[in-house]
Amino acid sequence: MSAAGEGTGHHVPGQGEPREHAGPTDASLELLEAIFESSPAGLAVLVGAELRFARVNPAYRALMQDPDDPIGRRFDEVTRIDDPLIVPTLRRVLETGEPASSEDWAVAVDGRVRRVSFHIQRVSTVLEAVLVTVWETTALWEARSAAQDAADTAMRHAIELDATFDAVADGFVLCGPGGELLRMNAEARRLLAFDEHERRAPVADQYALLHVATPDGRALPYPESPIAQALRGETVRGMHLQAGRDGRACWVIASAAPLRAPDGGITGAVLTFSDETPLHELEEARDDLVRMISHDLRTPLNAVYTQAHLIRRHPGDAARVEERARSIARSCERMSTMIQDLVEATLLEAGELRIDLMPLDLKALLPELLERLRGGLDADRVRLEIAPDVPHLLADPHRLERIVVNLLSNALKYSPGQGEVVVEVSGVEGGVAIAVSDRGVGIAPEDLPHVFDRFFRARGARRPEGLGLGLYITRLLVEAHHGRVEVSSRLGQGSTFRVVLPAAALPISSGSV
Hints:
Blueprint: H1 26-38, E1 42-47, E2 52-56, H2 58-64, H3 75-78, H4 86-96, E3 100-109, E4 112-124, E5 129-136, H5 138-167, E6 171-175, E7 181-184, H6 186-192, H7 196-199, H8 203-210, H9 226-231, E8 236-245, E9 248-260, E10 266-275, H10 277-296, H11 298-313, H12 318-350, E11 354-355, E12 358-360, H13 362-373, E13 382-386, E14 393-395, H14 397-413, E15 421-428, E16 431-437, H15 470-480, E17 484-490, E18 494-502, E19 511-512
Parallel strand pairs: 13-15
Antiparallel strand pairs: 1-2, 1-5, 3-4, 4-5, 6-7, 6-10, 8-9, 9-10, 11-19, 12-14, 15-16, 16-18, 17-18
């Protein structure tokens, strides 16, 4: 008995050399046909360079809902896709064999637009055929579009909410359950001034940076802070606090409340605070004004009152009357100076003080001014050093005289009895510098930033006199001339006040300031 298949001319599959590739059997063709016809995805076979339909399954027909049979017709005649790239894409796949896919192509069906996705691949090089697989994605596209619309709406609402928060004059802070910063408006960012690293720091560390205290100066520990109380479920309203960082003091009124979930659990807290610093400064200025009226102006008035009574007691003593009359005149002059300071400061702050600019020669003006001041000021202690090439100054002569007198009075007041005051005048770029130096007690470092503040009087060896407006008015007058004023000082060695004003060549117009 011969071996299996021997001499029969047939090859048994699985034995020996494989035979040539056999074509599909009837059963496999029936299976492929069944898969093609029953596929839930639309399938279409396009052949030739004209891309004519060769086969179309029921799913494709149902999706496109074309009443005419597409078989034998060109793709661009049948398919209603409003995209000029689809036919070139089909041809590119046919030519290169590289598959292509596309999402969300719009197809006009029964008067409405449906969304479909395509996958295109070459299936035969002999017939030049491509298989187009298409499935409807209308519901997915609509869901995605609705989600995008919802996201756009949420983003728009968030932007509107941010704009609303930023428009609020008070600081607004939203915190998480652990006190972490979730949201701040523009005013809160300005007042807290946290950088990116500080914003991510624990809330206790952030709180420590602010140096929060009660109005009487007692440091307020974090557990007693409004935000800590709110995170414990308490509501805080109108707590007056002072805070400061980087040397900047701030007074605020803070309120806080917890955020609660439906089950009552605390999910965070809201903190609001308003900057009351300008109001606090106004109250301090009011107190200073009351103090001045009740004390500083009353002192020379009391002297006038006392001397007048003494004159009445000895009206016939000419020497005593003359001496007491001079004392009354000096007291009246002091009162007049104080009142003038108040009026001038008010006009400068309101921008109503007129500045009449003209070229001024300091080489002639300053010696003449010192001569006129002799008797009122100890001008003999003043030494002038004027550089020969100093340009003319563009200034109001009366206001410039007030600037110089204020600086000289201040230097002489805080200098030793015979200490020399030096006035140096030199040219600088675009202007003229006037430096007034003394060898007096100097200014304490903590006082130095405030010497040009209203009503401020530095501590020195002599009892402060006047209202504390001289240097404040000096700064306002210098700024009205578009200049600048600065001070340097060392305790026990003296101070130098330096004013820089524009030269006459600079085009600055006259007018109220």
